[in-house]
Design brief:
Blueprint lengths: L20 H23 L4 E5 L6 E7 L9 E7 L12 E4 L31 H10 L13 H9 L1 H17 L17 H13 L8 H12 L2
Antiparallel strand pairs: 1-2, 2-3, 3-4
InterPro entries: Ub_conjugating_enzyme, UBC, UBQ-conjugating_enzyme/RWD
Organism: Craspedostauros australis
Pfam families: UQ_con
């Protein structure tokens, strides 16, 4: 009786654990983005806050609180997006305001901040997230708009009729304040209107924690528990 050898099963094609050159380069870009964001914790311009999206490493939600100048008390929300090849030459970030911003450096139709005019050549060895956020803050304090291209109508109005321009800016600031509690879907920068419990907690903290040496985790939690019971 002849014996038959078992049929051979085709072996799997070995997959190299070594990533391709393109994958390694992309991983390095991703790593650089995280390093830049970490750098912002101690170097972000005052009044500007940026929080990553929950779904995309290159998508951020931000807000700027303007403390002086024509836009004083303005609260402007924005989104910052980075192209997939960010950290390559001439891969500019994009900032789009969610709040309506009347400013010569912001496109009136799209809300996009004109970054390319300020940085015609984006050099990743010199330009970073903090660079573009510093520029974002600067446009709210600028007094000379000669180089502004995004909104020519606003630029000319600021030059020829400063009073009318100021009225539009004031309206823009008031609008930003009214919209502060309107949260975009998916945003990581959320504001909620003050509830009774918030006011109670604030009053309790003022009454029971009057000095810095009284501040502790347990002391604060105790007041939160009291506020919840109101």
């Amino acid at each position: 009786m002849s014996s038959r050898s078992p049929a051979k099963t085709p072996s799997r094609i070995p997959v190299s654990p070594v990533a391709s050159e393109e994958e390694r380069e992309q991983a390095l870009r991703d790593y650089k983005v995280t390093i830049e964001y970490k750098h912002l914790k101690s170097h972000a311009p005052g009044g500007v806050y940026l929080i990553p999206s929950m779904k995309d490493l290159r998508h951020f939600y931000g807000i700027i609180f303007v403390r002086r100048g024509p836009y004083t008390n303005g609260i402007f929300k924005f989104q910052l997006r980075l192209p997939a090849r960010y950290n390559d030459v001439n891969m500019w970030p994009q900032i789009t305001f969610s709040s309506k911003v009347y400013n010569p450096y912001v496109d009136a139709g799209t809300g996009i901040l004109d970054i390319r005019s300020a940085y015609p050549n984006w050099d990743p060895s010199r330009h970073y997230l903090v660079t573009v956020l510093t520029y974002l803050k600067k446009i709210f304090y600028s007094k000379n708009f000669a180089d502004a291209k995004a909104n020519p109508e606003a630029r000319e109005l600021a030059k020829k009729n400063p009073e009318a321009y100021r009225k539009k800016v004031d309206s823009c600031v008031r609008g930003s304040q009214k919209q502060v509690f309107v949260n975009e879907p998916g945003t990581t920068v959320k504001f909620t209107e003050e509830q009774v419990s918030h006011r109670v907690l604030r009053d309790l903290l003022k009454h029971h924690i009057r000095h810095e040496n009284q501040v502790s985790k347990n002391a604060v939690l105790a007041q939160i528990d009291k506020a919840r019971k109101v």
